[in-house]
Design brief:
Oligomer: single chain
Radius of gyration: 32 Å
Order of helices and strands: HEHEEEEEHEEEEEEHEHEEEH
Number of strands: 16
Shape: elongated
Helix content: 25-40%
Largest sheet: 4 strands, mixed
Strand content: 25-35%
Distance between the termini: 86 Å
CATH topology of the largest domain: Trypsin Inhibitor V, Chain A
CATH architecture of the largest domain: 2-Layer Sandwich
Number of helices: 6
């Protein structure tokens, strides 16, 4: 025969049962809350942002609709080497993990290019001509050297192989080729070390050293036009050598990458 519980024992037994019951209810509620939050926040339902670069808005919208993403054009640029009206840049970047209905901000290449009056840089030094062109949103293209009494004195200006007179309207971001003098002394120049530099900086350095940009190669990490103009130099040919000089106007080939591991590796070696 079971013994009757004393008052004290009964209270202890009742308290334990109530405590366990409360804990079970709390645990159940916590599980329901976690499940609810997972549904609301779509936990573990993130997916990679597709690459919209080079597409027009209609093409990009089809892909965005399939992925339940929203597109918004927030800016435009003008890049003459890129098809008009196509997507140049996106944010978040390609491969970023996002949830359903995320807005993707787009920068497109303008349909209507801005134009400027071609300045006259004849008689300027190479450095002065470069500054004048940049002020007009133009760029120095190829450097042609011909015999003249003054080295790096601009003798003529061209666009797409043809001479261009001052005042002619040209599209911004165009490249202006320069015909430059080189004295009979046959000056030479050194090739700078370009590894690890942004491609835009490397191009500026080559021009400043009276050199031409040769063939540009892109590694497998460069997927689109945006990558090609925002990448970094990972190798060059010829290499930089303080003991070796080269004729003015020599060409330097570059290899460009956006691979962060390769770029960081170059910086580590330099340190």
């Amino acid at each position: 025969m079971k013994k009757s519980l004393t008052n004290k024992e009964w209270m202890k037994h009742w308290f334990t049962k109530e405590l366990l019951k409360t804990a079970a209810i709390f645990a159940g509620a916590l599980i329901l809350i976690i499940i609810f939050l997972n549904v609301i926040t779509r936990h573990n339902s993130e997916f990679e942002v597709p690459d919209f670069s080079g597409m027009n808005i209609e093409q990009a919208k089809e892909i965005a609709d399939d992925a339940s993403l929203k597109l918004e054009v927030t800016d435009s640029v003008f890049l003459p080497k890129m098809t008009r009206g196509t997507i140049f840049r996106q944010n978040p970047r390609v491969g970023s993990l996002v949830k359903k209905n995320r807005r993707i901000l787009l920068t497109i290449n303008s349909l209507q290019p801005k134009k400027v009056a071609m300045p006259s840089v004849i008689g300027f030094s190479l450095r002065q001509a470069k500054a004048e062109l940049v002020a007009k949103q133009l760029h120095v293209g190829r450097l042609y050297y011909v015999p003249d009494m003054a080295t790096n004195n601009v003798l003529s200006q061209r666009i797409n192989g043809s001479y261009i007179a001052p005042g002619i309207m040209v599209e911004t971001e165009s490249e202006i080729d320069l015909e430059l003098g080189m004295s009979s002394e046959g000056e030479r120049t050194n090739i700078p070390d370009l590894k690890g530099l942004p491609i835009t900086t490397a191009k500026d350095l080559l021009i400043d050293n009276s050199l031409n940009i040769g063939k540009i190669k892109y590694d497998e990490s460069v997927k689109n036009y945006s990558d090609s103009i925002s990448g970094f130099v990972i190798s060059q040919n010829p290499v930089s050598d303080s003991k070796a000089s080269h004729p003015l106007g020599s060409f330097v080939e570059l290899t460009v990458s956006v691979d962060k591991v390769k770029i960081e590796s170059l910086r580590t070696k330099e340190e």
